[in-house]
Design brief:
Layout lengths: L7 H15 L15 H13 L6 H17 L7 H14 L15 H7 L4 H8 L19 H18 L5 H13 L8 H8 L2 H7 L5
Helix pairs in contact: 1-2, 1-3, 1-4, 1-6, 9-10
Length: 213
């Protein structure tokens, strides 16, 4: 499923599940009684299955219910974009959800949420029923810093050097390689997260450029 096809209900559910995750130590297990909207439940179940995480559906829906329950009791609850991404990282690690070939992972990242909301984090929060955060639009969002040619060139340069040296073309190796290149003076290399956001996943970026990890 490409990012353009992520339904709004799955985006709202991403915010709910991360809110529920953030309140895990404060919300009693029995508090997750708030029903998950059918459309969101279906979308989340489908995306979890597509990313190979179908076994998480029950626990994920319970976390969403806890988030919705807490939100119903306290409408002032909110999440900044940076806090959302930090908590999402914890959530992904705790559930062993990793990037895969040509797929958008759920919960989606803040970049996907912002793009759907025309760059307004407040609009995204309001749509999901969370209180509006002061962090509305990160500086630079919506302005393409790198061209598609620069993305392709970065991947080509990295994989070419990896091939010459017999090293891996893994995401972690790209991040380390880019850091060394920047220290040497290069300023035309997009970050690892930027490449994954642009192509959907690291594997998809390599596939599109005719290489493999």
């Amino acid at each position: 499923m490409s990012r353009a096809q992520v339904p709004q209900s799955a985006i709202d559910a991403s915010l709910w599940v991360i809110l529920g995750h953030s309140l895990a130590d404060k919300t009693p297990p029995s508090a997750g009684s708030q029903p998950v909207p059918a459309e969101a439940s279906e979308a989340v179940g489908r995306m979890l299955a597509e990313q190979g995480s179908a076994e998480l559906e029950s626990a994920v829906l319970e976390t969403i219910r806890a988030g919705l329950h807490a939100l119903g009791r306290d409408p002032s609850l909110t999440l900044s974009a940076s806090r959302y991404d930090a908590l999402r990282g914890e959530f992904m690690d705790s559930h062993r959800i990793h990037a895969g070939k040509g797929r958008t992972l759920w919960p989606v990242g803040s970049t996907t949420i912002l793009k759907r909301a025309s760059g307004s984090w407040s609009q995204a929060l309001a749509h999901a029923g969370l209180a509006v955060s002061a962090e509305t639009r990160p500086a630079g969002f919506g302005r393409a810093r790198f061209t598609s040619e620069q993305f392709s060139a970065a991947i080509f340069d990295f994989t070419s050097q990896a091939l010459r040296e017999g090293s891996s073309t893994s995401y972690q190796n790209y991040v380390a390689w880019r850091k060394r290149q920047q220290q040497a003076g290069r300023t035309d290399l997009p970050s690892g997260p930027a490449i994954r956001n642009s192509f959907g996943s690291w594997s998809a970026a390599l596939d599109q450029e005719g290489t493999s990890a």
